[in-house]
Amino acid sequence: MEKRKFDVAIIGAGGAGMRAALQLSTAGYKVAVLSKVFPTRSHTVAAQGGITAALGNVTEDNWLWHMYDTVKGSDYLGDQDAIEYMCRMGPQVVYEMEHFGLPFSRLENGKIYQRPFGGQSRNFGGDQATRTCAAADRTGHAMLHTLYQRNIQAKTHFFVEFLAIDLVRDAEGRVLGVVALDMEKGEPLLIEARATLLATGGAGRIFQASTNAFINTGDGLGMASRAGIPLEDMEFWQFHPTGVMGAGVLISEGVRGEGGYLVNGAGERFMERYAPHARDLAGRDVVARAIAIEIHEGRGCGPHKDHVLLKLDHIGRDEILDKLPGIREIALKFAHVDPLEAPIPVVPTAHYMMGGIPTHYRGQVVVPARTGPEEAVPGLYAIGECACVSVHGANRLGGNSLLDLLVFGQAAAEHIVEFLKENPTSPPIPKEGPDLALARLARWDRREGTERVADVYRDMQGIMQSHCGVFRRAEVLEEGIAKLEEARQRLDRAAIDDHSKVFNTARVEALELENLMEVAFATIRSAAARTESRGAHARDDYPERDDRNWLKHTLAHGDGTIDYKPVRLKPLTVPSFPPKTRTY
Amino acid sequence: MSELRWRSRRGMLELDIVLGRFLDRHEARLSEDQAKAYLGLLEYPDAELWDIITGKGEPEAVEKPLLELIRMN
Ligand SMILES: Cc1cc2nc3c(=O)[nH]c(=O)nc-3n(C[C@H](O)[C@H](O)[C@H](O)COP(=O)(O)OP(=O)(O)OC[C@H]3O[C@@H](n4cnc5c(N)ncnc54)[C@H](O)[C@@H]3O)c2cc1C
Predict the structure, then answer these.
(1) What is the per-residue pLDDT across A421-438, written as a single tens digit (0 to 9) for each?
(2) pTM for the structure as a whole
(3) Cα atoms found within 13 Å of the Cα of residue A90, Cβ hemisphere only
(4) CA dist B9 to A36, A42, A63, A133, A512, Å?
């Protein structure tokens, strides 16, 4: 097997991976960034809304108010040390991006443009704040392109269209690099590194209805899980209330901001019942749950009563063409309706994974060990959507994810620099180090099989959608676990038809499905175990939040066992925000 | 040909769907020149490619006939 040596291996070229890479390359380290797609096609490109930081350009602001909103938004499950760090660093990382050349939109006075988002307040729950910085409706795109250009200048080494397969560890558990598949050649490559950073993004494809691109298959989580690292808080998935029925494509809150509203099968404007004040503009979890209840109780629309309608024709032809042209395009292409004349069918759609690989606020992966629940795994880091720091807790606020990428991209890079100084050489890779990865690759060379990968893929998504979606209860979850177990056994019996080497997408999809399966199991097991409702995790049979028993993080191990660890309620320098009832 | 498939995996779900539909219908019948033109289109950044597909941007002349096919998906 071909072998290359670097100081740091970064898996993932989204906003998180590229922010960390830039810092390390600029500091003079030899950095490899692996990406299964061309870097600027990473999913970060889809982020339209913007990045939240308390700049105070439109309304007076303070990072402590942002911190309060984030802790409350997390339904008190977020770790307050990490949240303090993120909110305090917010303005700095945004100004840094401005300095790197990110073309932010501007206010009349020339300052960075900011827009109001749900869950943002002034003065600890007071008036609406205006905190999300934007580059038109292309903030993620602008961020990726800026970071990519800078990385090229800093001589970061990109391995494009390389699929990371598994981590390489030694007997002491140190992480020494990664084995990847060169998709163009069809050959494995061993990347030896003194530090390895996972930045592989989300895993929304475990669900049938997802706003995520097809590449979001949780590969980093699968790798961590197979390396014996538990996954944290996987029961917490944010469902966006308005994904286009059948396609998943997101219809942004902007439509409801412009006056669009939801109606059920009886033509009723049902949000008035659930949130009399905020109505259709209530928080994402509130609207998503309301839609789920309407459908669940038989008040959905269409022959199968399986969706609700987003009505906007009353806004007026000119307004729609002027303010919402992109939305019209999406409705025409994916719902086959023209919103000038007819409402858009929508359903709650999986959008963001709050859980992930457990880390502390400087990006190092931490696991339960003899010394306590958070012992660092030497040489391994995780950032971005694949990581659970945890700043989003049980529910993420809009615009906080892009911020998370930059803040913890930088923080992890700083910690890696310290780690590299303390560890000038890495221990040798044991002969059997790459075995786990090579066995995974070899497994798909098998020619006999009774199952097809595509069928198992589709069934897994269906099981997760109907057994672990917005609406959860014990029997439904337990039944889902049994069905998922069956699906996993079918995956063991599956084979692929295509055994060619070059760009074998069948093999890639099979490997991705194995990762999704790890994520799906961690999600549904964690959801079945948590007998309370908190943030995005809503149990029909346990509708209340239960701080006495459940103010703790879930840790789901690959072998099916579950552990817990305390929430870090103590911030770094300011007093704690104690749990309160969350109302808006 | 799988190269076309893989490079049609994008950062935006909108493109995943539209390009996937296009390939399902036409992949088997693409000429070498068409495949080349398609790979050329895939070089555009996601946001620009989406603009082109939805008629807000203009591609190179050689890519236009192909684009008409993609737009129908
Ligand atoms: C439609 C949509 C809109 C959004 N809008 C906003 C917004 O306005 N504001 C906000 O804050 N958040 C938003 N989010 C969330 C936010 O965009 C994501 O959480 C964030 O971009 C994730 O960034 P990342 O760097 O962690 O991962 P990604 O950008 O997903 O990058 C992952 C990288 O890992 C690579 N990779 C994955 N697996 C492998 C492997 N096995 N081998 C090699 N490479 C691999 C990929 O190639 C890619 O380069 C939105 C999300 C969606 C779905």
Answers:
(1) 999 998 999 999 999 999
(2) 0.97
(3) 30
(4) 10, 10, 38, 28, 13
